[in-house]
Amino acid sequence: MPTYRIDLAYDGTGFHGYARQNNVRTVQGDLETALFRITGDVKTIVAGRTDGGVHAVGQVVSFSVDAPLDTRRLQRSLNGQLGPEIAVSGVAEVGGDFHARFSATGRRYRYRIWNRPVLDPLTARTTWHIPEPLDVGAMDGTVGWFVGVHDFASLCRKAPGRTTVREVLDARWIRSGDIVELSISAVAFCHQMVRSIVTVSVDAGKGRSRPEDVPVILAARSRDVVRGLAPPHGLTLMAVTYDEAEPGTVPSWVVL
Amino acid sequence: MPTYRIDLAYDGTGFHGYARQNNVRTVQGDLETALFRITGDVKTIVAGRTDGGVHAVGQVVSFSVDAPLDTRRLQRSLNGQLGPEIAVSGVAEVGGDFHARFSATGRRYRYRIWNRPVLDPLTARTTWHIPEPLDVGAMDGTVGWFVGVHDFASLCRKAPGRTTVREVLDARWIRSGDIVELSISAVAFCHQMVRSIVTVSVDAGKGRSRPEDVPVILAARSRDVVRGLAPPHGLTLMAVTYDEAEPGTVPSWVVL
Question: What residues of chain A lie within 8 A of the CB of B125, using their CB?
Fold first, then answer.
């Protein structure tokens, strides 16, 4: 069966997250409705199921169909139906064993904070407004402790029977002007993990905790040690990476 | 009477422009409703009346009241009522002769184009999407011809009995990555002038006209020579300047 990869971006503001749900607007719902007009019934696989309000620049979706498709026409038709909130930046035929989720070898997210006393209406949809000064050095020191393989049970919404062990590949907080930004990549993230890491970082940035508290937080393996969840609209899925050499294989170290 | 200056920013997407109108949402309407709760009935003056969909980073409003106000409390109260689409970045007491519109000595606007085949959902509210390649050198050469004192009748929506002579102080198109951006300042602009200049620029950027056509366009003194109007959502009022030495005076060369 011919298999296709779709790269897409979206403004998550108006969606109840990526994953299809009954009676509410979702990215998957809009995408599959648009695809249905072209391909008939089709089942799509997504690399990263983003929550309500979370944005994407480099989301990846895969699906298989019975008969070959014209990729340029498919892209044009999807963009005509889905814009301006969803944009398809590429459509490509891939090997039959390509799986947007299981073939992925890494995900990178960005989290943006608008760090000035007064908010900025033009970035309000994509940044968390924190008026108090933030110690970005302390925030960067905090996320350094998360790099490597750890049990992130304190920072994940529980999924019964699933491991909460993940490998964070890198994580940096930097300031550029009034924007304070986290870039973080991992093989895979568990649910709500990035927004919990932001919460812990901001606590340190406000001087309420220290970077060295992270090992204690991780060791607790309980969500009670992390207060609240950073709001979704500061978060954007930037990129999903695949092993270019063997795009269809599932590396054994991917945490499913 | 104590007189105040308010600096504000807004995302123009949800507003039918700045100026108050009956039965539709406007920036002035929201602002005066919020002010009314604090000061009672008040008449505000604005530096630049932006059209529906146009944004602002540095809009300026002035008003006078009978009794002095606590500027910090006023700012906090306005931001509590108006966010996140409108933000008040500053409130200051000014001289009684300060007039947001007549005291202004210059206005600066930005116009942004997203110049890639596929649009970007996260900048779609603030950029005009033009998929075809643009010759930014030709666009920059085009706006160079508008600098100076000219009759902009070909580029302005007519206001009976008002002059269409304006002085453009500087105008530049530059590319940074996928964004092509105009920065333009003038003592004052007439209605729809910047968006008409963008239309003429984009014609040159697509090779449909040449920079040297501008003198012919100006000489025509007719809107028939400019086809269409660039969409409002790419436009942002960036700053209004005042003569710092004498903030309350109206320079004789301001075109009212």
Answer: 125
Using the Cβ of A1 and the Cβ atoms of chain B, whether some distance falls under 8 Å is answered with no
Q: Does B80 touch chain A if contact means CB atoms closer than 8 Å? A: no
The pLDDT, as a whole number, for residue A247 is 47
What are the tens digits of pLDDT across the range A184-200?
Answer: 999 999 999 999 999 99
Query: Which residues, including other chains, have CB under 8 Å from residue B217's CB and lie 6 or more apart?
Result: B154, B155, B200, B225, B226
Nearest Cα to A49, choosing from A128, A91, A112, A104?
A104
Answer whether 0.80 is exceeded by the pTM.
yes
CB pairs under 8 A between A and B: 62
Q: Which domains does chain B have, with CATH numbers?
A: 3-102 (3.30.70.580), 105-239 (3.30.70.660)
Asked if B72 has any chain A CB less than 8 Å from its own CB, the reply is: no
Could A83 and B11 be called an inter-chain contact, meaning their C-beta atoms sit closer than 8 Å? no
Taking only the tens place, the pLDDT of each residue in B131-185 is 999 999 999 999 999 999 999 999 999 888 899 999 999 999 999 999 999 999 9
Question: Which ipTM did the prediction report?
Answer: 0.85
Give catalytic residues of B, as residue numbers.
Answer: 51
